[in-house]
UniProtKB/TrEMBL annotation, chain A:
Gene name of this polypeptide: ppp2r2ab
Self-association state and partner proteins as the record states: PP2A consists of a common heterodimeric core enzyme, composed of a 36 kDa catalytic subunit (subunit C) and a 65 kDa constant regulatory subunit (PR65 or subunit A), that associates with a variety of regulatory subunits.
UniProt name for this protein: Serine/threonine-protein phosphatase 2A 55 kDa regulatory subunit B
Upper classification of the organism: Eukaryota, Metazoa, Chordata, Craniata, Vertebrata
Organism: Cyclopterus lumpus
Keywords from the UniProt entry: Repeat, WD repeat
Molecular function via GO: protein phosphatase regulator activity
Pfam hit, one: WD40
Xref: PROSITE patterns: PR55_1 (PS01024), PR55_2 (PS01025)
Any one of the GO CC terms: protein phosphatase type 2A complex
Keyword Disulfide bond: no
From TrEMBL, chain B:
Name of the gene this protein is made from: ppp2r1bb
Positions of the Phosphatase PP2A regulatory subunit A/Splicing factor 3B subunit 1-like HEAT repeat domain: 276-357
Record domain Phosphatase 2A Regulatory Subunit A helical: where: 89-270
GO cellular component, one term: cytosol
Name of this protein: Protein phosphatase 2, regulatory subunit A, beta a
GO molecular function: protein phosphatase regulator activity
Keyword Hydrolase in annotation: no
Length: 445, 589
């Protein structure tokens, strides 16, 4: 695959969502996730809805237009609730979606809000039964006297119908807000992590889960760090990692003991004393952790950078990429408008050669690991003509602004790209701006 | 409903058929459960050609409907025309065997296994075996997991060519890409080995077993431990060492605690399967390691097996093995850091005394019992107390009584009411073993104190406990020790305690007999009918109803009746109600 900084160019493919600038809170996209084949793409929003897009069968006549994603199914996954015991409102916002490996003709996904995880089945139906004994097909009852024989209904073809049905509800296991869910490669368990604990569930059992990590101190005043993200290793079923607000990542081996309070590896980069400031701890907090597909590396995202760690080296990352270093001088105002607490996610491309993450002003960044090149692109309505090539953007960090450069001061911090996803094989990416989902793909020559 | 022209008998069936597609799940479920009625009405021909095709395509339905359907189809052979046509049931069961719900799939497989027996050998090869193959090579892992459960039922009844194919399919599934399928194969490995010829067990099964036991996923490896039991039972003793033991040794030292847990959990079965020689040489050290495992879950599982393991050791040097190898580990477990380990041990440790005999028990086990009786965790103490009978037979309980008493007293006063409840339940057993004298001296006060516990469940259990004690020690003992104290509570200022008197009388009257009931209890009950608390008064009515049958008719007429009649005119509604009920039950009106 050609790197994004090299020959490859990205072009606009589709944009989903309303066009007007007036954004309804419920429409804000809160998570984006491709399934394992890339044929389906799911988004979750603050209104508790899940929308699934399906890639159309490729059009052989127009090879330059790769198949588009169209709405396949939309359903309300979570509803707002109220915890009467604690007097707490539970938002319906979908925090994470994870697809399960396909096990039969239907598709399954886990979706979670702050407290409750649900397993959904998305299935197709193309037949319907026909033929009643006691009534006509339109519902009118027949005269029972006319029944002289029995009729067994037959199934006849009908228009394809996609149904989403809740199969399991995993509730009441989290005191704090769930930030991550991750399906294990053993196909039967998954983990869910909140601020202080990680639980292990069997996908078929909803009435109990096992607590595998608990960092809650006996006295909450001694609390110094929280869990920010957790993920299972893609191949080793016994390994998972969790990241903390202090910028460390712990790798745990579930074979060693039932309670994984003692990590087997601790990934931590010594702090550079020259960069120390009031904001050091806040910006070092890890907002996302993702294993590479091959399981050799993991990527972490903190406020200003993306780091790639080799699982075999704990003392420093093998690669560090600056996402928006020009913000370092703006941390004070970013603290005041709370942007410094934004949780940016990150993702790998299909062969782990490129990583992607979001930034402000609807910019998103790609880093080509082999060629050590990076690129800033923008998701905007102006670029939304079919197959229009995205122009790389440049932010001017100070000094004299060149033509085509954008000044740091003119960046719009309300337009942020927190959630992105990369097709598991192809160069197709999904980028969520506030309430729009952009799909881009590489330009096919 | 059906008119004169229609066929009366058709109407209910027509309803059932229509409800197969009703919106309401409950109605669909009802219809599916009466599927045999529908099939009977349709006759075998239409069942085969119309009903079954319809059912084959209903896999969209709710799990509970599908589960019921899968179960029904297992008993459908006669309804489709007998064994000759049994293969017509395969298509719907095949589609049920691919759904995502494990319970439904398992039920479909169970029904398939059942009807496989009704296939003729020819049909088995023509219809059943192709289905197994289709499932085994299905695209989705749900179908492949289902296939794993079907090999063993068709293997014994097919030709040798087909047998070779089946073995090949099983082999393929054992190395499937999905752990789900490998787990299904691993869990059926033992069952499949049982129907295989011994040569194939040695050539095929052993290599599969070894591969599964070293699978990269521990969820697969742990299932191989179970298969180990069945395989070891099938092999001649001389082959065990070379074919099974290397794998078993490896499992007992697996890096994953879940695999070691499984070994500990299956230890008794493994011990029986490999026989006494290997047990002595291999399993004893393995068991020692499991008792010392770094993971508490494993230690607890092993601790649970201590008694069974020791019991099953070869008798000739059992005592020596236990004393030199097992007991030192057990001693360490008594002071384990994990309370689940200690309480697992406490639930079986007393059993060792019968195996080791009086002298060893006094010298080696008794200090351990005593230490556990003083354990900080109530569950440990309770487990020791609940198993006292084992020691009683060997050394007599007197040896323990000095330590027993403080332990019992402490549990009796534990802050958690469930702990108090548990010890009350052992009281009759303890009383029986300690004897009446010891009981009167040390435990009687406790039993009485529970009657005024502030938790109702404890007061209730204490009442029931008194009844059991009276059954054990007799009416005379009751009259001297219990009844006066119980009746004394009738004057307690707390109405809850006064009610406890009534509850005790209810429980004790029968065991104490007519004399005590009439002469001592009845006057107290009658006096309480003037209580100012209505709850006490209506409980008087209930008590009178309860003890009425024990009294003689004279007392009933002259003493009980007037009181009940008075209560029946009480100002309180409930008092009236229960008084009237008592009058009518005792036929005093």
């Amino acid at each position: 695959m050609a790197g994004p900084g090299g020959d490859m160019q990205w072009c606009f493919s589709q944009v989903k969502g309303a066009i007007d600038d007036d954004v309804a809170e419920a429409d804000i996209i809160s998570t984006v996730e491709f399934n394992h084949t890339g044929e389906l793409l799911a988004t979750g929003d603050k209104g508790g809805r899940v929308v699934i897009f399906q890639q159309e069968i490729e059009n052989k006549n127009q090879p330059q237009f790769r198949s588009e994603y169209n709405v396949y199914s939309t359903f309300q996954s979570h509803e707002p609730e109220f915890d009467y015991l604690k007097s707490l409102e539970i938002e319906e916002k979908i925090n994470k979606i994870r697809w399960l490996p396909q096990k039969n003709a239907a598709q399954f996904l886990l979706s979670t809000n702050d407290k409750t995880i649900k397993l959904w089945k998305i299935s197709e139906r193309d037949k319907r039964p026909e033929g009643y004994n006691l009534k006509e097909e339109d519902g009118r009852y027949k005269d029972p006297n006319t029944i002289t024989g029995l009729r067994v209904p037959v199934l006849i073809p009908m228009d394809l119908m996609v149904e989403a049905s809740p199969r399991r509800v995993f509730a009441n296991a989290h005191t704090y807000h769930i930030n991550s869910i991750s399906v294990n490669s053993d196909d039967e368990t998954y983990l869910s992590a909140d601020d202080l604990r990680i639980n292990l569930w069997n996908l078929e059992i909803t009435d109990r889960s096992f607590n595998i990590v608990d960092i809650k101190p006996a006295n909450m005043e001694e609390l110094t760090e929280v869990i920010t993200a957790a993920e299972f290793h893609p191949l080793q079923c016994n390994t998972f990692v969790y990241s903390s607000s202090k910028g460390t990542i712990r790798l745990c081996d579930m074979r060693a003991s039932a309670l994984c309070d003692k990590h087997s590896k601790l990934f931590e980069e010594p702090e550079d004393p020259s960069n120390r400031s009031f904001f050091s701890e806040i910006i070092s907090s890890i907002s996302d952790v993702k294993f590479s597909h091959n399981g050799r590396y993991m990527m972490t995202r903190d406020y200003l950078s993306v780091k790639i760690w080799d699982l075999n080296m704990e003392n420093r990352p093998v690669e560090t990429y600056q996402v928006h270093e020009y913000l370092r001088s703006k941390l004070c105002s970013l603290y005041e408008n709370d942007c410094i607490f934004d949780k940016f996610e990150c993702c790998w491309n299909g062969d782990d050669s490129v990583v992607m993450t979001g930034s402000y002003n609807n910019f998103f960044r790609m880093f080509d690991r082999g060629q050590r090149r990076d690129m800033t692109l923008e998701a905007s309505r102006e670029n939304s003509k079919p197959m229009q090539v995205l122009k790389p953007r440049k932010v001017c960090a100070g000094g004299k602004r060149k033509k085509d450069e954008i000044s740091v001061d003119s960046l719009d911090f309300n337009k942020k790209i927190l959630h992105t996803a990369w097709h598991p094989q192809d160069n197709i990416i999904a980028v969520a701006t506030t309430n729009n989902l952009y799909i881009f793909q590489d330009k096919v020559n | 409903m059906a008119g004169a022209d229609g066929d009366d008998s058709l109407y209910p069936i027509a309803v059932l058929i229509d409800e197969l597609r009703n919106e309401d799940v409950q109605l669909r479920l009802n219809s599916i459960k009466k599927l045999s009625t529908i099939a009977l009405a349709l006759g075998v021909e239409r069942t085969r050609t119309e009903l079954l095709p319809f059912l084959t395509d209903t896999i969209y339905d709710e799990d509970e409907v599908l589960l019921a359907l899968a179960e029904q189809l297992g008993n459908f052979t006669m309804l489709v025309g007998g064994p000759e046509y049994v293969h017509c049931l395969l298509p719907p069961l095949e589609s049920l065997a691919t759904v995502e719900e494990t319970v439904v799939r398992d039920k479909a497989v169970e029904s398939l296994r059942k009807i496989s027996q009704e296939h003729s050998p020819v049909d088995l090869e023509v219809h059943f075996e192709p289905l197994v193959k289709r499932l085994a090579s299905g695209d989705w892992f749900t179908s492949r997991t289902s296939a794993c459960g079907l090999f063993s039922v068709c293997y014994p009844r097919v030709s040798s060519t087909v047998k070779a194919e089946i073995r090949q399919h099983f082999r393929t599934l054992c190395s499937d890409d999905t752990p789900m399928v490998r787990r299904a194969a691993a869990s059926k490995l033992g069952e499949f080995a049982k129907v295989l010829e011994l040569d194939y067990v040695k050539s095929d099964i052993i290599s599969l077993f070894t591969a599964l036991a070293s699978d990269e996923q521990d969820s697969v490896r742990l299932l191989a431990v179970e298969a180990c039991v069945s395989i070891a039972t099938l092999l001649p003793q001389e082959d065990l060492e070379s074919l099974v033991m290397p794998t078993l040794r490896q499992a007992a030292e697996d890096k994953s605690w879940r695999v070691r847990y499984m070994v500990a959990d299956k230890f008794s079965e493994l011990q029986k399967a490999v026989g006494p020689e290997i047990t002595k040489n291999d399993l004893v050290p393995a068991f020692q390691n499991l008792l010392k495992d770094c993971e508490a879950e494993v230690r607890a599982a092993a601790a649970n097996k201590v008694k069974e393991f020791c019991e099953n050791l070869p008798e000739d040097n059992r005592e020596q093995i236990i004393m030199t190898h097992i007991l030192p580990c057990v001693k360490e477990l008594v002071s384990d850091t994990n309370q689940h380990v200690k309480s697992a041990l406490a639930s079986v440790i007393m059993g060792l005394s019968t195996i080791l005999g009086k002298d060893n028990t006094i010298e080696h086990l008794l200090p351990l019992f005593l230490a556990q009786l003083k354990d900080e965790c109530p569950e440990v103490r309770l487990n020791i107390i609940s198993n006292l009978d084992c020691v009683n037979e060997v050394i007599g309980i007197r040896q323990l009584s000095q330590s027993l008493l403080p332990a019992i007293v402490e549990l009796a006063e534990d802050a958690k009411w469930r702990v108090r409840l548990a010890i009350i339940e052992y009281m009759p057993l303890l009383a029986g073993q300690l004897g009446v004298e010891f009981f009167d001296e040390k435990l009687n006060t406790l039993c009485m104190a529970w009657l005024i516990d502030h938790v109702y469940a404890i007061r209730e259990a204490a009442t029931c406990n008194l009844m059991k004690l009276v059954e054990k020690f007799g009416a005379e003992w009751a009259q001297n020790t219990i009844v006066p104290k119980v009746l004394g509570m009738a004057n307690d200022p707390n109405y809850l305690h006064r009610m406890t008197t009534l509850f005790c009388i209810n429980a004790l009257s029968e065991a104490c007999g007519q004399d005590i009931t009439t002469k001592q209890m009845l006057p107290v009950v009658l006096k309480m009918s003037n209580d100012q608390v209505a709850n006490v008064r209506f409980n008087v009515a209930k008590s009178l109803q309860k003890i009425g049958p024990v009294l003689d008719s004279n007392a009933l007429q002259t003493e009980v009746k007037p009181v009940l009649e008075k209560l029946a005119t009480d100002t309180d509604m409930d008092v009236k109600y229960f008084a009237q009920e008592a009058i009518s039950v005792l036929v005093l009106a």
